[in-house]
Amino acid sequence: MGIFTDMIDLAGENVGGVALAASDEFFAPKENLLKPGRGIFIPEKFTENGKWMDGWETRRKRIAGNDWAIIRLGMAGIIHGLDIDTNHFLGNYPQFASVDACDFPSGPDVTFSPEQVKWVEILKKSPLEGGKRNMFELAETKGRFTHLRLNIYPDGGVARLRVHGEVVPDLNALRQSKDPVDLASVRLGSKVVASNDDFFGKKHNAILPNSPVNMGDGWETKRKRRDSYDALMQDPDWLIIKFGAPGQVSRIMLDTTYFRGNFPDTVQIDGCTFKSESGRIPIQKSVAWKPILNRVKLQGGKLNIFEQEVMQAGPVNYVRVQIFPDGGINRIRLIGTLA
User: Which of these, 202, 188, 152, lies nearest to 337 by C-alpha position?
Assistant: First the structure.
């Protein structure tokens, strides 16, 4: 499994990805490609067209050619890897797949016409296996893409499509608007670059743009055990967010909606300006962290909002969130202005 799988999925429906069109979806709709999870199988479930499948499945082709589906990415960006998952498709998966991409303007008045765009092949026709995640690392892809075309040969079913990469936002437009933004959001190209623990809930969940849907949709650490209560409460778990662009935080929103018996007791947030070289991240003790939010109590099952408590730390490009002693947060929103 490639290292790219630790990157954000640019296409997931939870970040706004949409399946726009498909050559055929007789057995199962194209929208399933972007749903969370790997898909389920219910042996006794059928539809009027045949077996119900949790994925995108076309009919058996009786003419020349191949099937395809077009995806509008939820977030435009640079693609580093693809996960073409054929989970539960064993006697009906495609023999091969290829993927094309393009960069197409977005907006309410723009109509996407696939025949009018210039497609770039980012994955050549490659063999697939049934019932597994088919992983393809794309070392040579360059440029920012907004849409994908998944081609399957000649027909069959794919459970999920994951498009892992780096978000590339239009920062110039955001700066010109001067409106407050969520500096930590993946939509701005921000990313969680380090965490000491994300045993129950992955660290990347904390900065997703959509509202959380359950307790599994958040960042959650394992239960910590120490010799004494005092030692426990002085030993925080933490994550570090790298902003897509430097900014000054003025409002903090910590969502613990689905964490009611396992939310952190207190939280502290600091920022720094750090020049990253060769992939280095600011986890050394020598880094000059500046307080943004001094240690405060959290409440579970609600949106915790801090505004008057926020300190003027100036523009920063990294933020460290410490939770005492452990627990879970669904979303971390750091509202502010771009530098």
Answer: 188
